[in-house]
Design brief:
- The protein is of the alpha/beta class and 205 residues long.
- Strands 1, 2, 3, 4, 5, 8, 9, 10 and 11 form a nine-stranded mixed sheet that branches. Strands 6-7 form a two-stranded antiparallel sheet.
- Strand 1, helix 1 and strand 2 form a beta-alpha-beta unit.
């Protein structure tokens, strides 16, 4: 599968490396351009292609992995999504400096904003409920770590569930964005909730 990643910070680098290792064609873009991406990935052995934002948006699946305040900048109205899958991995932090500050969306929520900025995309929420240090840390013997997913399009959510399983996590599609997406947001019941399932159960689910 051709997977695009918008963002080359910790989340983008981690997911790009894991999906390239799994055999996918991975394109990565950031706001500074392909040369910057090339420099970031120069010491990583897995094949990752530096790209423009437009090239990334042309992929079958696009992972949004930029800081929250950069979301409106990267999701330009000029981009054409044509029903491709956009995975919102963001958390609504207004600041990461000294202390974490949560943005006040005045009753709105993150994935709803993302869906409005990319109206032709099939938006799925995933990879945001645990820190990446926790998400990919070693698990107890014979257990897999659960990763929650939310999305309005069943086919899109199932596609992302398959990609989640490929990198060693157990996907749980929790429901649609309006309910499960809010529950996955900062302060929601799924945020920071770490659960495990037995490996045999995960393999047969």
């Amino acid at each position: 599968m051709k997977i695009g990643i918008l963002g080359a910070g910790k989340v983008g680098i981690t997911l790009a490396t894991k999906y390239a290792t799994a055999g996918h064609e991975v394109l990565v873009a950031n706001s500074r351009g392909p040369q910057s991406v090339s420099e970031i990935f120069s010491k990583i052995a897995e094949p990752v292609t530096p790209a423009t934002v437009v090239e990334v948006v042309g992929c079958e699946v696009v992972l949004l992995a930029v800081p929250w305040l950069k979301v409106p900048e990267i999701l330009s109205p000029s981009l054409s999504w044509e029903r491709r899958i956009l995975v919102d991995t963001t958390n609504i932090f207004a600041s990461y400096k000294q202390e974490l500050v949560v943005a006040d969306l005045k009753g709105d929520f993150g994935s709803e904003v993302v869906a409005r900025l990319a109206p032709d995309a099939r938006v799925v929420k995933a990879f945001n409920t645990l820190s990446f240090d926790v998400m990919f840390s070693p698990t107890p013997t014979n257990l897999k770590r659960v990763l929650f997913i939310a999305g309005d399009d069943k086919s899109a959510a199932e596609t992302i569930a398959g990609l989640v399983a490929q990198i060693g996590l157990h996907p749980v599609v929790a429901g649609k964005l309006a309910i499960a997406g809010r529950q996955m947001e900062l302060g929601g019941p799924f945020s920071s909730l770490e659960l495990f399932v037995p490996v045999k159960q995960a393999a047969s689910a």
